Amino acid sequence: MEQKLTTGDLVLCKVGSFAPWPAVVFPQRLLRKDVYRRRRAECVAVCFFNDETYYWDKPARLKRLTKSTIERFLEDAPATEDPGLVGAYEEARDYTSLHEFVMQRLEEENRIEEWEKSAEADTKVEAGQDPFEGRPAGLKAGGAKLRKSSASASPPRGYPKARRAASGSADGSIGTKSSSASLKSRSMPESPSAVKKLSRLDHAKRVEISLLFRCKLQRNLVQRELPPGPDEIKESHKLLGKITENTLANPQFFDFEALKHSKLHKLLKVITNDDNLAEFHRECNDILASWSPVIAELKKDKLNQRRDT
Length: 309
Fold this sequence. Notes:
By secondary structure, the protein is α+β, with helices and mostly antiparallel strands. About 45% of the residues lie in helices and about 10% in strands. The protein folds into 2 domains: about 10-145, SH3 type barrels, CATH 2.30.30.140; about 175-309. InterPro entries: IOC4-like_PWWP (IPR035503), PWWP_dom (IPR000313).
C-alpha cells in the first residue's frame, strides 16, 4: 500500500489535458483565506513550483515526485519543452525545506508580517503533517489571523510564477495551463484608455493579466499536438496586438514583477524559435525588443541569486 501523503511531499498534479506539474503538498492552516475557503471535501492543497497557484485535488490523483524522476526529466527534456515546466522541475530539484518554501510564499503574498506576529513565528514549519488539517475556528493560523493577501485570488505563474499572485482557484488554474473561469472573466485592455487605466493596476493584477496572456498564447500556439487552426491563429494575433498596445503604458505595464512571475517573455522567445510559427516572429521580436531593459534586469537578478547560493 502506498504511503499516505503528508505536508511537504513533492507530487505531480495533472489538470485537464495539460502536462503534470511539480507541486508541494501545502499546510492548509497557512493558506491564504481566499484559497482556504475554496477547499474541497477529501482534497488536499498543493502549491505549484514556478507558479503562484494553488490547487485542491484528491490524494489518489496525485503522483509522488522523486528526485530521480526530476533528474531524468531535466536530462531528457527536449529543447522545445515548455520553459515554464522545465523551470518548475528545476525548482523542485532545488527544494530542500517546506519551511523555506512556505516563507518564500508568504513573502511573495505580502503576508510575512502576519507570520512574524503569529504564535508560530518562532517555530519551524515542519513537513510530515496531516494535509487535511485545516485552520482553527475563525480561520486563524497559530493564534493570529492571516489577512487576505494583497495578491489577488485568481487563477494562476500561474502555472507557472504564476505562480501567481495568481491564485487560489478551486477549479484548477495553473498559470499557463489554466482554463479557470476566474481568469477568463477578466477582460484584457482593448484601447489606449484601457491601457492607461491598467497602468495603475496593482502588482497582483499585472501578474494575473500577464499570466492570462501567457496561458492563452501557450495553449493556442505551443502546447498542442496539432498545428494551430484559423481561430487559434486569429486569436493569437489579437493577443499579441494587445500586448504590444500595453507596452505603451507609462509606467510600464509588463514590469519586472509581471514578467518574472508570468515568464511571458520566455514564451515569446519559444515562439520566435519555432519555424512553424514564422508569421508571429515579427510581433514577438518587436515586443521582446521593447522589453529588453526589463529582460536584462531579470537576467541580472537571476545571476545574482545564483551567486548568493
